[in-house]
Inverse folding.
């Protein structure tokens, strides 16, 4: 159950994680030459969130919904048809 608690915490806090990564600048040493030139020319600084796929992060919302719909004691032994998950999401 320790792993399930860790996963719950990750799912619960993902929006906060995205907010935090939107405030962390990527150091110029990690930027590609083209992006570095853009930043040096005064264009938008690159933040960590710029390198995170928001589409993929939406998966967390779906996972949280599914995880919340399954009673805690049954998560480990869940054998639900895929149609149930599709309807839940």
């Amino acid at each position: 159950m320790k792993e399930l608690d860790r996963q719950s915490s990750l799912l619960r806090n993902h929006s906060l994680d995205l907010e935090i990564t939107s405030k962390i600048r990527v150091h110029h040493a990690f930027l590609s030459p083209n992006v570095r030139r853009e930043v040096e020319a005064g264009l938008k600084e690159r933040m960590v969130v710029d390198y995170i796929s928001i589409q993929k992060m939406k998966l967390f919302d779906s996972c949280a919904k599914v995880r919340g719909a399954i009673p805690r004691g049954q998560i480990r032994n869940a054998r639900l048809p895929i149609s149930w998950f599709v309807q839940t999401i």
Summary: Residues 2 and 8 are 10 Å apart (CA to CA). The radius of gyration is 19 Å. The chain has one domain: 2-88. The chain has a mean pLDDT of 77.
